[in-house]
Design goal:
alpha/beta
Length: 262
């Protein structure tokens, strides 16, 4: 599909000024140039033209809001100074798989003051001795070259950054510990348990005291009962003795009567 037709298809009945992202990968450029892309795409922030046989950026329109530009797997060999003029706010540029051979070609990117990430994979320039050191020295505004910074730290993807933000939030929640009042509730519960234990121990002591007093009372009662029993036995013995004495007196009286009769 030709690029012009593809652009019309990507619009989907929208006006060019309403489009913020445009992907034109694998389309065919006419004579190696861009067709159908013009200054009316003034809100465009992301443009991808990978593998479209693009050889020149001369007809690139002014895209002041463009942040990311994908131009991988084309046949661009120079003319990069156009980018600083037409897309001054670029932060990401992918030129991997093009015909870029020397540092002088890349030097034109010095005027892209906001450029943070540059990809030159599979370009002949990567075969130069001290390639990475030379590029970082030449383009001091960039942070990442071919996906890595000067300390070989990998550039984060936007999705990974979101995940990392989520992980940081989870860690903060974990480090934050239990919600407010949770420790106070635990301390209150512990205090209540201690109070219950103390109350139980006091109750146990009280029960022991009651039991002891009860046993002592029973022993006292048993002793009183024994005394009563002894007293009752003594009374019976006394009654028996009195009965015997009465009978003896009666017999004596009878004997005295008989003697008087005689």
């Amino acid at each position: 599909m030709e690029m012009k037709k593809r652009i019309n298809l990507e619009l989907r009945n929208r006006a060019p000024e309403e489009v913020t992202e445009l992907v034109l990968d694998n389309c065919l450029c006419v004579n190696g140039e861009i067709e159908g892309l013009n200054d009316t795409f003034k809100e465009l922030e992301f443009l991808s033209m990978a593998n479209v046989e693009l050889s020149s950026l001369a007809r690139l329109p002014s895209l002041n809001k463009l942040r990311k530009l994908e131009l991988s797997d084309n046949i661009i060999s120079g003319g990069l100074e156009v980018l600083a003029e037409k897309c001054p706010n670029l932060t990401y540029l992918n030129l991997s798989g093009n015909k870029i051979k020397d540092l002088s070609t890349v030097e034109a990117l010095q005027n892209l003051k906001n450029l943070k990430s540059l990809d030159l994979f599979n370009c002949e320039i990567t075969n130069l001795e001290d390639y990475r050191e030379s590029i970082f020295e030449l383009l001091q505004q960039i942070t990442y070259l071919d996906g890595f910074d000067q300390e070989d730290n990998e550039a984060p993807d936007s999705e990974e950054e979101d995940d990392e933000d989520g992980d940081d939030e989870d860690e903060e929640e974990e480090e934050a510990g239990p919600p407010e009042g949770y420790e106070e509730e635990e301390e209150e519960e512990e205090d209540e348990e201690e109070d219950e234990d103390e109350a139980g121990s006091e109750l146990g002591e009280g029960e022991e005291e009651v039991g002891l007093s009860y046993l002592m009372k029973e022993e006292i009662q048993d002793e009183e009962d024994d005394d009563d029993y002894v007293e009752e036995g003594e009374e019976e013995e006394e009654e028996e003795e009195e009965g015997l004495r009465g009978e003896k007196r009666k017999r004596d009286a009878e004997d005295d009567g008989e003697e008087e009769d005689d």
